[in-house]
Amino acid sequence: MIFQRLADQLAEIERRGLRRRRVARESPQGSRIVVNGREYLAFCSNDYLGLANHPRIVEAAIDAALRHGVGEGASHLLSGHSVVHERLEAKLSKFVEMPRALLFSSGYQANIGAITALAGPEDAIFSDALNHASLIDGVRLSRARVVRYPHVDLEFLERALADSRARTRLVVTDGVFSMDGDIAPLPVMLDLCDRHDAWLLVDDAHGFGVIGPEGRGSPAYFGLRSPRIVYVGTLGKAAGVAGAFVAGASEVVETVLQRARAYIYTTASPALLAAAVEASLQLIQEEEWRRERVRQLIGELKQALRGTDVVLALSYTPIQPVIIGGNGEAVSASAALRERGILVPAIRPPTVPEGTARLRISLSAAHSEQDVARLAAALREVCPSNAAAHA
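and the corresponding structure tokens:
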């Protein structure tokens, strides 16, 4: 029976230690959250700058709701596009120093929309092996020929680009990889795209607001400006709100607007969210101390674990993974931390490769030095030696 097949599949997921479970948060997002009436020290969100509950952002959302209501009732190409959306797009394009930007309701939609608009069956896409699922799904939906290159293996990528005779070549990569926290080598990648006449699409979900001057993202981190760059920024992580945008050359963004089904056939996100992002963008630019705090906490955590059996992956971003290896061991370590009042998620396949299950620590400007010291002490208690897995 079809129901039995589902039950058998779920049982196999459980047996392999891969079943995912939600927690119902009872408090606002922050460094401390309440679940089932208990307060936890949380290292499990992507609110890297601690902006999700900022009063200026909340006030902007409330004011916009009073002025514009809570729903748009139509897609952007019908009557759902408001002056607030229009104004935010102009501010985002100016912020990332690109000619134009286009708002999407989520980062997933933005990646799928941009990729499928720019590449099709006659084209070739070159995708990093550790790219986010939204990039992978966008590549699949494009029906382009796919070359999946080993993680940041630029020699492999160069050979593949040189061998390609596709009409259009599109290289897609995370800016900051979401599970490892490493930064893509964008200068070399852009040079390869220049030499082989390719686009470079950068999903900067975990870089926007966090790295680069004023938080302008991973291309700015390297001082890169090029019409070949197609930039995807997420507004629900460091910006603390919701949504995403695609930025780039005017012709690129107009092509995405005209061809991206994920944009054309969805209701516009509420204007109140666009207004909230406007307020957030101003804070991102004004308050450098938030990025400085995150950098300080990264150093504190690395120092606290130096010389112990708890080995962090090589990352200088707020994403600090502890590679453990086995699924069961990662889940057990996460559960032991929870018993101590600390939430750190266990990340398992297929999100990460087999044998690399991990604790994914996310640091935020809302954390304190004392929070990080408490986390480090707990990690030393509960983590199995992960030196072999990390090596």
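(Above: one complete record from the training split.) Residues 387-391 have pLDDT under 50 and may be disordered.
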